[in-house]
Here is the input.
Amino acid sequence: MTTATEVIKPPRTEVGVLGWLKKNLFSTWYDALLTFGSLAFISGVLYGVTKWALTGAKWGVVTTNIKVFMVGRYPYSEVWRVWASVGLFVVMAIVTLVVWRLDIARARRAVTIAWVIVLLVTIVLLKGFGDLRFIPSVPINIWSGLMLTLTLGIVGIVASFPIGIVLALGRRSSLPVIRVFSTMFIEMVRGVPLISVLFMAMLMLPLFLPASISGRLSNVLRAMVGMTLSSAAYVAENVRGGLQAIPKGQYEAGRAVGLNEAYVMVLIVLPQALRAMIPAIVGQFISLYKDTSLVVIVGLLDLLGVAKAVTGQTAWIGTQKEVFAFAGVIYFITCSAMSYASRRLEKQLGVGER
Amino acid sequence: MENDRSEASDAREMIICRDVHKWFGDFHVLRGVNLTLRRGEVVVICGPSGSGKSTLIRTINRLEEHQKGDIFVDGIELTHDIRNVHAIRQEIGMVFQHFNLFPHLTAIQNVTLAPIYVRRWSKDKAEEVARQLLERVGIPEQAEKYPAQLSGGQQQRVAIARALAMQPKIMFFDEPTSALDPEMIKEVLDVMVELAKGGMTMIVVTHEMGFAKEVCHRIIFFDEGNIVEENPPAKFFTHAKEERTKVFLSQILTH
Here is the structure.
């Protein structure tokens, strides 16, 4: 029997933080017992780890070798080029964000072209030319450490996405040759471990290409091809799952309104399919990024390969915990960033809401 | 663009179906359908489910392929030639039972998509026409909403606007109100009545006999893959000749 002016608030222990705590952690006596038990366990573990991290650990191994972790065997005097590239990327990222938010139509095309130019410039900058005094050549096989991981990861992700989409469409094609080829490719790649794909890329790629090119194929390039093709097969299956989930009515409505098959696919079906498959596709990308650590098998030193090499230094014997914890943190940061970006993307596209 | 305008291009004959047969595997779904539709005619096709009435209009639109017989739309023959198919699809606007709006686009983007990419209109021109159409179907304020945010009746009206955006000469309606709640059926039927009174050539597959009585020129009773009976509404309900027609009418008119 409240009048319109009287406002009764809900009891304080039922809402807000207190309410949540009461409902989820302390609702019954065994719930509360479980809560205290878990708290004890978690704090025990955290105490041990934190104590080790702050007092017992020899973080010197990380700080003195930070350059090795980051760029591996890249000549120290040329490291400024890596900084320049990073700086360029950061600037481009900010510019892209600004242009996209402000939605200036003409600028978008300019930004896309700018990205392509920046990428080429970066490659030239990092690789250098043979005799130039200004930017002497740094063969790509010297790249190691986090730089190699990022390079392999980024190239793998960026290249496998469009190839995967094409393979998925090919697998659903009505032309038998395309369908058979796509299916065979996907199944063959999925049927072998990534390590064997890398070995095949290392050893067999020169067989497929004319001698003039194969001699100049560095190991890193062969690893890139192996990773890209492998990831493309998995991306293709994810995309195909998304395509199958689109109701036939969408295709029909697109055709009925006069769009040709290509437009129906690009404007109507693929946007919906890719939206639905963002978790699976990004999951594949994160997996690919971590799988770059396998290149140690074919003689390349990525972040983990370098980490292992560092633990062998005589000055830092017995520091595996610190080194691998550091490598783990680096991986965690990058993979979390990808997960976060994927969640933001899903939110912006309204996945699950429309 | 080459169209097979070989048939006597009588501009009043919008659709000609001659002895059209279609099989789904072994199932003979269309059995020699002969149908003629003139400009400005509104035809209602009714019949029991599974009779093939939806299949017929989907076949004319090439959403399904017919195996035997001839179909002409506005003088263009429906063949395997993809240019003919595209030309025909641009002449026919289709409204589906389950709306089939594009969920990743707003209402107005749904309507402007085809004009921009097929007719190559500029974005501004397409949007202006789209807003007029949305106003014509009664929901101008929903332009920026996504289909998931609209009610069924509103979605179907956006679907009608989307079909009209391509300025078709013929409109097909495949059970447009069957998936709607009763309160929303009227708002969609009102739009269709207004279209019919405006002179649009229409084929409507529906069970809404009130709509049929109000605006259509002919009612066709379709059963087992062929036309059983067709008559103007005045005669259709009272002077049904075939036994099957009488049975069907008794089933739907007792509601």
Observations:
- Chain A touches chain B through 22 residues (CB under 8 Å).
